Amino acid sequence: MTPKFQNTTHFKNFWKQGNGKELLDWAEIIPNFQTFQNYAPLYHQVDELGDEVVKETYLKLKYKEASALIQKYSTQPISENDNAPENVKKLFLELQEIPDWFDENLANKGARFCMRTGANGLMILRDFTLMGGYDFAYISKPLIFTEALKKGAVKRLKDTLEFWVNVTRENALKQNSEAYQLIVRTRLMHSYARLKITEKTENWDYENWGEPINSWDMIATYTGFSLVFMQGLKKLGIIISDEEEEGLFHLWKYIGYLLGIPFDYLPDNRQQAVEQFYWWTTIQDKGDDDSVQLAKALLKENLENTIYKHSFQRKILKNLHQSMNWFLLDEEINERLQIPKPAKAFLVFPNIVLRGNKIFQKIYLRNSTKYQKLVEMGDEQQRKVLVDYIKHTPNDFHY
Question: Which ranges carry the ER-bound oxygenase mpaB/mpaB'/Rubber oxygenase catalytic domain (predicted)?
Fold first, then answer.
């Protein structure tokens, strides 16, 4: 493999004058080609253990039997003596073995940071991380080939929100916890989708797109939950301490490890994160027609979701999210994804949020007691949004 898009206009604009340049300046690095050579093999590597578990369960047994088996070992410990399929046993024995490098106290610092971001964090995840990710054309192809558009953006957002909120709580990643169960479910969902794409899709472009849901794409995705997440929050005036930053990277390194990503490739700091992200974008084309459809579906979600009763409320919400898109993302990305520019009255919204955050943090970042109060308030905000999404999303998942 060699970098394909390093000399294209969209790549140069992003890394020389757009959000990419902001990342390079923040990390204070000059990308080294050796990093590309180290990571490139991951584009054609996958979670083989997860795939073997799916073959032993969901592709072999009746759905209820497979689900019951996975649920059993997601909710209780497994031992060498359990009469479980070979790879199921191997997976759960591996998951319940806490690696020597994992520091729970450090991960909890990252979790408390996620919690204290409150509504800001959710806006960044939606309007910056998720929407901006659609401009990388190839990583979204599994969504297209699994016909995720037909299922609607409301459910996709609910699933993502449920996952994120649960795995980013303090002390959440204990064995057999709700977060642990969600990680197992997500890992096997990725494997199931990959196997079905491989089985049913004749025109999957392995040369350009890599393996479906490959390890480098997975790392890029979880870089969105750490590096890009922090970049967006900084744009909204959120102050991030060195401990919070280190903790957030550590938290997502452990989550990524549990999801089957080779842990030694997951970044420990912003320098490593920016370095691998830079080289990953050299093999990602700019947003295409599929990207536009995904962006439109995300915007349309505001109008389809029934959390707000009246249509005028939903239209206002849509405009507020579009104002965030235009504030956070590079102009050419907004144009490429065909995100309409909202009325001037809504364009002031991000600046109102930014000013409010600066005032709020002067009050609540003074000492540990006030910081903890901010964590609790942010946690409550995020859980309230999740409850609303669960309540207003059709429950079509059967474990």
Answer: 151-344
